[in-house]
Design goal:
The complex is a heterodimer of chains A (about 90) and B (about 450). Helix content of chain A is about 30%, strand content about 30%. Chain A contains 3 helices and 4 strands; from the N terminus they run E-H-E-H-E-E-H. Chain A starts with 8 loop residues before the first strand and ends with a helix. Chain B has about 450 residues and is mostly helical. Chain B is globular and about 65 Å long. Chain B starts with 11 loop residues before the first helix and ends in a 37-residue tail after the last helix. Classes of the chains: A alpha+beta (about 90), B mainly alpha (about 450). Chains A and B meet through strand 1, helix 1, helix 2, strand 3 and helix 3 of A and strand 1, helix 13 and helix 17 of B.
């Protein structure tokens, strides 16, 4: 991390464990505008893999590598330009 | 300065993931240049003690250790029998005569955990997981922000403890160790895990259970996370203490010390490898990731071969009744582990990482297992679900070649199933990372409550 990323929102998921961090992260992203940056703080080690995996699956961008501070990890996510997948589409499957 | 060391803790699965997230450890110096001994040592230390192991490596390590354990001890890896006995001790201390319960007459309730090998194995697992958590700097008292998680952990533990004992074993005794021992009940238990974890996910993501997430102001002063630099030293101290304990125990009975070390090895492996049987099934219904399930299938295939060699020489071959109770137990266990946030091995290592929710899951597990021990005859569960069903040994049923190749084929089928499931077209990860093409269908997050993916079915 050469320079700190300024997030638009910060989601603190410390203390949460599987399966919640990726789900709550996606919930938050769906409330955000395209291009905004979300910082997710997790202290559940598997989330360092699952959160980036799920958000990239959904087309959002993970900025850099998760930053470790002690037992906490900070993951920075940029919401994709086209917006998140609308709920209606998934419901209409 | 100690607060800001950047590092990755993910293991190779993440590095191999096409997301392009740079997870591999940074090797100092020019790429390709020969490393000095010191650099190699640091790299080794990092791979073993800091970064998480790749799932396949951890599952293979657990499988090999399980083979050695069966050879030495005559029984394979399992924990809930011992946890049920702990519950029996607690109930006895409360003045109830648990020893007279038929369930305890069957599994035994003599002495204390320090007077039987299974006690040392279980204590060793907790100790080994603590060592793993500390040496990797991952110990932290993790109090959930929502108090409901504590209740959830307890209830989930209760269900999983109850279900596990109804099935005569958890994800270890009735699955990881049972299938390679050719006991049909392992497959029945696994069959129960699919609908069980599916129902568990449905419950766990219900807004009443999940609750809201905590937002923090984006600007302003952050609290700094406490340093974890002291932890490796504490981990070394715990390891030394366990070593001392193993030596002392071996003076009483050599097997006690050896089993303590086996347990420590298992605990260390599951913590370092993040072996989470819950995730292997649960993720089918959430992210569809099959990495862990594949690793488990691989480990169990190796165990199958090793166990076959031992069983053919008369060692091991523990058979349990393949009853309706095993299937029901598997379903209850599946629901419980998803709610609790970990299976039997999962809560053991996560509780040692400091998860308060998983402490509650542990308490719930012991409570649930003890409740089952009572309900076995107290509620007539034995007569209802277990009596009259046979223990089926696949070796007797199919012969050696049939049992070995049949088990391997079924494991391969599981491997193929999760791989196929992962690759279904509606899974958005099939788009290249960083190429956010047309809006894909979100599999699980619409409206916050994950919905089952289309064409979902329970195999």
């Amino acid at each position: 991390m050469t320079q700190p990323i300024q997030p638009d929102r910060v989601l603190d998921l410390c203390g949460e464990c599987c399966p919640y961090p990726p789900i709550l992260t996606m919930q938050e992203i769906q409330q955000m505008k395209p291009g905004e940056v979300l910082e997710v703080i997790v202290d559940h080690p598997p989330s360092v893999t699952t959160v980036p995996t799920v958000v990239t699956m959904e087309g959002h961008e993970v900025l850099g590598e998760p930053v470790r501070q002690g037992a906490e990890f900070h993951i920075f996510i940029r919401v994709k330009a086209t917006g998140s997948a609308p709920a209606a589409e998934a419901a209409g499957q | 300065m100690s607060l800001n060391h950047t590092s990755s803790i993910s293991g190779a699965p993440a590095a191999a993931h096409p997301s392009g997230i740079p997870h591999s450890p940074t090797v100092p110096g020019v790429p390709g240049a020969p490393l000095s001994f010191g650099e190699r040592a640091r790299q080794f230390h990092r791979r073993v003690f800091v970064d998480y192991w790749p799932y396949w490596a951890a599952c293979l390590a657990a499988a090999v250790l399980n083979i050695v354990l069966l050879a030495y001890w005559g029984s394979a890896w399992g924990v809930t029998g011992e946890l049920t006995r702990w519950g029996g001790h607690i109930v006895t201390a409360l003045g109830i005569d648990a020893k007279s319960w038929p369930y305890f007459q069957e599994i035994g309730l003599e002495g204390s955990p320090l007077q039987r090998t299974s006690g040392y194995l279980t204590i060793g697992m907790l100790g080994g997981a603590l060592v793993g958590a500390l040496v990797s700097g991952n110990f932290r008292i993790r109090m959930p922000q929502q108090r409901r998680r504590l209740v959830q952990g307890f209830v989930g533990g209760l269900l999983s403890g109850f279900g596990a004992r109804l099935a005569m074993g958890c994800n270890l005794g009735s699955f990881f160790s049972a299938i390679p021992q050719f006991s049909l009940h392992g497959w029945l238990f696994m069959l129960g895990l699919f609908p069980g974890t599916y129902l568990g996910v449905k419950l766990a993501v219900h807004p009443w259970v999940m609750g809201p997430a905590t937002r923090r102001p984006a600007a302003g002063r952050r609290r700094a996370a406490p340093s974890t630099r002291w932890q490796p030293y504490a981990g070394a101290a715990v390891a030394a203490f366990i070593g001392l304990g193993a030596w002392k125990a071996s003076l009483v009975e050599p097997a006690f010390g050896v089993l303590l070390l086996f347990g420590t090895g298992f605990g260390f492996i599951i913590q370092r490898g993040r072996i989470c049987f819950t995730a292997a099934f649960r993720e089918m219904w959430i992210t569809r990731q099959g990495e862990l399930a594949r690793a488990l299938a691989l480990g169990m295939a190796v165990s199958t071969l090793g166990f076959a060699a031992l069983i053919s020489r008369g060692i091991g071959g523990n058979m349990q009744v393949a009853s309706l109770g095993v299937l029901v137990g598997g379903i209850l266990f599946g629901i419980g582990i998803v709610l609790a946030g970990g299976c039997e091995s999962g809560w053991m290592y996560r509780s040692m990482e400091g998860y308060v929710q998983l402490w509650m899951a542990g308490l719930g597990t012991i409570t649930g297992a003890t409740l089952l021990a009572w309900a076995w005859h107290g509620l007539g569960l034995y007569d209802l679900l277990v009596a009259g069903w046979p223990a089926i040994n696949l070796v007797d049923a199919w012969g050696w070649p049939g049992a070995i190749f049949g088990t391997l084929a079924l494991l391969a089928a599981w491997y193929a199933l999760v791989t196929w499931w992962e690759s279904l077209p509606s899974r958005p990860a099939s788009t290249p990372a960083h190429a956010p093409g047309p809006a894909r269908k979100a599999p699980a997050f619409a409206g916050g409550a994950p919905q089952p993916a289309p064409r979902q079915r329970i195999p």
